[in-house]
User: Fold this.
Amino acid sequence: PPPPPHDVAIVENEAWGPLVEQRPPPIAALAPERTLYFTSFTKCVVPALRVGYLVVPDAMNASVANRHLVTNWIATPIMSELASRWVADGTAAELVEWQRRELRARHAIARELLEGTAFRGHPESLHIWLPLPPPWEEDEFVAHARLRGVAVAPGSSFVTKPSARLSAVRICIGSPSVRELRKGLEIIARLIAGAAEPALLAI
Assistant:
């Protein structure tokens, strides 16, 4: 058959993908001949299980193996064996489902405490996105949150071009304990409901 008009390789990162139960098929399932697909156990199974899988087209096996050899250390064999056994006996799937249930509960807390804001987030994701109402600037909001012991990521870290910038912050809900999450979201809710002020102090 004639070559496609744009003969490009696709790198698909699905490190977080397994957390979403109802998700579309990966690109690798639609274009396996040109997609390098990788996922990780760290984000969706156990943080300490620092190993993942890379699936590559047959035609790229040799080139990918060479590049992996010169750019990466070998994964710890015991971690690789543990991950493979957990996939085979269903433990990995059980842990992913536990993560989904926990994230749904945490998103319920976010909906409760951030009611009235424009926050967005998939109920099985590790993060939520919080657009800031004017006149809040994200740098000032991030600084004020840090002064109160809450770390949030500025939205500017995630834009691909300056013209698409939206004043917002990203909030991780998967890492802290439920108690810490509730306390942090309460601080954010009070902060966003208050008047915007320059951050005169920094930590």
